[in-house]
Specification:
Blueprint lengths: L1 E6 L3 H15 L5 E7 L2 E6 L4 E9 L2 E8 L3 H9 L9
């Protein structure tokens, strides 16, 4: 499943937080960096399952997209910890 949020954080901070979150906050489902570069991070966890994250700067904040097959609940929980951009209706 793919998830997307827009946050006030810079992309590098989002990816750093993801590394800490998936290594420390969900011990039964820990995942660790396998590949990373400017704007993206791939984590590998239990049974070789993957979490892919991308953080792209945009005009209203940093757009963060994440996808996974097994870690849906954990990915959704991580994204909910990111400070959202206040949107004016």
């Amino acid at each position: 499943m793919t998830y997307e949020v827009v946050t006030t954080l810079e992309g590098a901070e989002v990816l750093a937080r993801a590394k800490r979150f998936f290594a420390e906050r969900v011990p039964m489902y820990a995942a660790f960096p396998e590949k990373e570069g400017p704007g993206y991070l791939v984590l590998r966890g239990q049974g070789g399952e993957e979490i892919a994250l991308a953080a792209l700067a945009g005009p209203t904040g940093t757009r963060v997209r994440g996808s996974t097959l097994l870690f849906d609940q954990q990915l959704d929980r991580f994204l909910s910890t990111l400070p959202p951009v206040d949107r004016v209706p």
